[in-house]
């Protein structure tokens, strides 16, 4: 019975650590750019867009499609980087246990 108790204690500790990491991810940010820095997106570790900057030179009413493409590219890259950040931070807690994201 002591081994079962130890396992439960470790699981509770892991869950607590995961919750702490999730909260901290809201304070960490990643940045992605598109168009050579014409569009910059900052996202937090929870994959929420925190800021979006557009260089005025890229704003052209005759080529809105290009601007839209740059925004989509920068947002997608920022989300990818935020996911990588989260996986990195979660990996530190789980110690490489191979626990799938979102399971805890």
Search tags:
single chain; 104 residues; alpha+beta; Ybab, Chain: A; rod-shaped
Short description:
With 104 residues, the protein is an alpha+beta fold.
Write the layout of secondary structure elements.
Blueprint: H1 2-25, E1 29-34, E2 39-44, E3 49-54, H2 64-94
Antiparallel strand pairs: 1-2, 2-3
Helix pairs in contact: 1-2
Judged by helices, strands and strand pairing, the structural class is alpha+beta
Fraction of residues in H or I helices: 40-55%
CATH class descriptor name of the domain at 33-93 = Alpha Beta
Largest sheet composition: 3 strands, antiparallel
CATH topology of the domain at 33-93: Ybab, Chain: A
Arithmetic mean pLDDT: 86
Strand order of the largest sheet: 1-2-3
Q: Looking at this structure, what is the CATH superfamily of the domain at 33-93?
A: Nucleoid-associated protein YbaB-like domain
Parts with pLDDT < 50 across at least 5 consecutive residues: none
Q: Provide the β-strand percentage band.
A: 15-25%
Contiguous helical run count: 2
Quaternary status of these chains? single chain
Instruction: Specify Rg, calculated over alpha carbons.
Output: 19 Å
CATH hierarchy: architecture of the domain at 33-93:
2-Layer Sandwich
* Shape field: rod-shaped
In total, the number of strands is 3
- Terminal Cα span: 24 Å
Order of helices and strands: HEEEH
């Amino acid at each position: 019975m002591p081994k079962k108790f130890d396992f439960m204690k470790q699981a509770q500790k892991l869950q607590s650590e995961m919750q702490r990491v999730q909260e901290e991810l809201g304070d960490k940010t990643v940045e992605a750019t598109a168009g050579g820095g014409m569009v910059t997106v900052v996202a937090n570790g929870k994959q929420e867009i925190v800021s979006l900057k557009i260089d005025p030179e890229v704003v052209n009413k005759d080529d809105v499609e290009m601007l839209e493409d740059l925004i989509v590219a920068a947002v997608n890259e920022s989300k990818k980087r935020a996911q990588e950040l989260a996986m990195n931070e979660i990996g530190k807690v789980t110690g490489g246990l191979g626990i799938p994201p979102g399971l805890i």
